[in-house]
Write a structure and sequence with these properties.
Elements lengths: L4 H17 L11 H9 L26 H13 L9 H12 L3 H12 L19 H7 L6 H18 L4 H10 L1 H7 L6 H14 L1
Helix pairs in contact: 1-3, 2-9, 4-7, 5-10, 7-8, 8-9, 8-10
Length: 209
């Protein structure tokens, strides 16, 4: 898939930030989404208290402490990438993406609420961006610009769709995989015994119902 120039610029800037602060680069440059997914599916058993990754968004389930310097760099990268406040309706964007991938929009809305409260300006301490909290590498593998609200939602929805396909339409497992990664769900045969993941799944399903 040919990446847009702005996505490549974002990747380059994020790599600079990662190198500056010694952050691990979790996605191989140029790696396709399918390769990323297969690598996650091949993941082995993990410590119940410390998930290796958070699903398609690749953010640490054990929240790291945000340093002022790192946040300043992340915010600067956001501005340099042309990030802006939301325009239009988040619900409209969710309905559009859900229709494209054949998912109940209520489920996408529940994930969006649990991830960021529907806030495109939200950047986590681990570097996850926007409404459905995509990591830059994951966004690149999905072919979307995470700093654009509509593309961010589309990328997260596509990943959620793929998790539903991977786990035979099982919503609980798909939501767990969005948070903890498909490899962990496969290894444990269901929601992994990670407190953060279990709380996340319960929150999403409560919102969904």
């Amino acid at each position: 898939m040919v990446q847009l120039p702005e996505i490549q610029a974002v990747q380059h800037r994020i790599q600079q930030i990662q190198q500056r602060f010694g952050m691990p680069q979790q996605t191989v440059p140029g790696q396709s989404f399918q390769e990323t997914l297969e690598a996650q599916m091949a993941g082995g058993l993990q410590s119940p208290s410390q998930p290796k990754a958070v699903g398609g968004v690749e953010k640490s389930a054990v929240k790291s402490v945000k340093t002022p310097a790192a946040m300043t760099e992340a915010e600067r990268a956001f501005q340099e990438a042309g990030g802006t406040h939301l325009s239009g309706s988040v619900n409209d964007m969710i309905r559009s993406a859900a229709s494209k991938y054949g998912i109940d929009p209520r489920l996408v809305s529940a994930v969006a609420e649990a991830e960021s409260g529907g806030n495109q300006d939200e950047i986590s301490s681990a570097g996850a961006i926007g409404i459905m909290q995509l990591m830059p590498g994951t966004a690149a593998s999905l072919g979307v610009n995470p700093y654009d609200a509509a593309q961010n939602i589309e990328g997260g929805t596509k990943y959620l769709h793929d998790m539903l396909d991977t786990f035979g339409g099982d919503v609980r497992k798909a939501v767990a995989a969005y948070n903890a990664g498909p490899g962990a769900v496969k290894a444990y045969g269901g929601v992994p015994p990670y407190p953060e993941t279990q709380a996340y799944v319960n929150r999403v399903l409560d919102l969904y119902r």
